């Protein structure tokens, strides 16, 4: 289990999952479709049933900057629903996805009746706050090399697949890394090649392996 992510569907009781499914609305999206957009009204939370979403922000010139990947079982939008504030990021389908839309009032009623679910969701929110601090730390790095390496470590901890005691796989392309770092693909590729020469990463097709990301 990845301690940096919370799989709601796996951690909630069976009765709680059934309750959410009874109030939820299933929807399907195709690759690169917007599931939600920054500034949307907080009308619902959503659970990713299958597939993968990328959470992104856009710079002033329209460049997409990757914040994180949302994996199956994770919930998003709870902060906006609870605080009644607009959605802070875009969620974009990375391939075909299925989500469970949880309308605001039925979801709030569910939380009011399920203390155990509230505790699990509090852990989700805490991890997202910690993630924001990690992102701020990464972006404050002095050099592009430091930003690239720190970004890979952060994403490996959150979204990586542990292969062995000292190696973690990330399903992302070099374009994805460039978007997460906020630099050009060419410059990021140069830094990745240096890290590969130092045996800190292994580069593959839409995949990287991080050596000892901790």
Automatic annotation (TrEMBL):
<dbReference type="InterPro" id="IPR018490">
    <property type="entry name" value="cNMP-bd_dom_sf"/>
</dbReference>
<dbReference type="InterPro" id="IPR036390">
    <property type="entry name" value="WH_DNA-bd_sf"/>
</dbReference>
<keyword id="KW-0805">Transcription regulation</keyword>
<dbReference type="InterPro" id="IPR050397">
    <property type="entry name" value="Env_Response_Regulators"/>
</dbReference>
<dbReference type="GO" id="GO:0005829">
    <property type="term" value="C:cytosol"/>
</dbReference>
<protein>
    <submittedName>
        <fullName>Crp/Fnr family transcriptional regulator</fullName>
    </submittedName>
</protein>
<feature type="domain" description="Cyclic nucleotide-binding">
    <location>
        <begin position="8"/>
        <end position="111"/>
    </location>
</feature>
<feature type="domain" description="HTH crp-type">
    <location>
        <begin position="142"/>
        <end position="214"/>
    </location>
</feature>
<dbReference type="Pfam" id="PF00027">
    <property type="entry name" value="cNMP_binding"/>
</dbReference>
<dbReference type="InterPro" id="IPR012318">
    <property type="entry name" value="HTH_CRP"/>
</dbReference>
<dbReference type="Pfam" id="PF13545">
    <property type="entry name" value="HTH_Crp_2"/>
</dbReference>
<keyword id="KW-0804">Transcription</keyword>
<dbReference type="GO" id="GO:0003700">
    <property type="term" value="F:DNA-binding transcription factor activity"/>
</dbReference>
<dbReference type="InterPro" id="IPR014710">
    <property type="entry name" value="RmlC-like_jellyroll"/>
</dbReference>
<dbReference type="InterPro" id="IPR000595">
    <property type="entry name" value="cNMP-bd_dom"/>
</dbReference>
<dbReference type="InterPro" id="IPR036388">
    <property type="entry name" value="WH-like_DNA-bd_sf"/>
</dbReference>
<keyword id="KW-0238">DNA-binding</keyword>
<dbReference type="GO" id="GO:0003677">
    <property type="term" value="F:DNA binding"/>
</dbReference>
């Amino acid at each position: 289990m990845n301690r940096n992510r919370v799989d709601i569907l796996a951690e909630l009781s069976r009765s709680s999952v059934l309750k959410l499914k009874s109030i939820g609305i299933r929807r399907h999206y195709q690759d690169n479709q917007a599931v939600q957009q920054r500034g949307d009204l907080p009308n619902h939370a959503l659970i990713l049933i299958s597939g993968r979403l990328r959470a992104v922000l856009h710079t002033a010139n329209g460049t997409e900057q990757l914040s994180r990947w949302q994996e199956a079982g994770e919930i998003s939008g709870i902060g906006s629903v609870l605080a009644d504030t607009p959605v802070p990021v875009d969620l974009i389908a990375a391939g075909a996805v299925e989500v469970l839309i949880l309308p605001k009032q039925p979801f709030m009623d569910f939380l009011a009746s399920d203390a155990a679910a509230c505790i699990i969701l509090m852990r989700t929110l805490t991890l997202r706050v910690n993630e924001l601090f990690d992102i701020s730390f990464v972006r404050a790095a002095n050099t592009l090399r430091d930003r690239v390496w720190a970004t890979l470590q952060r994403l490996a901890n959150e979204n990586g697949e542990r292969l062995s005691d000292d190696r973690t796989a990330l399903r992302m392309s070099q374009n994805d890394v460039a978007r997460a770092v906020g630099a050009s693909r060419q410059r990021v590729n140069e830094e990745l090649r240096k890290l590969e020469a130092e045996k800190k990463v292994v580069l593959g097709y839409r995949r990287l392996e991080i050596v000892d990301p901790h």
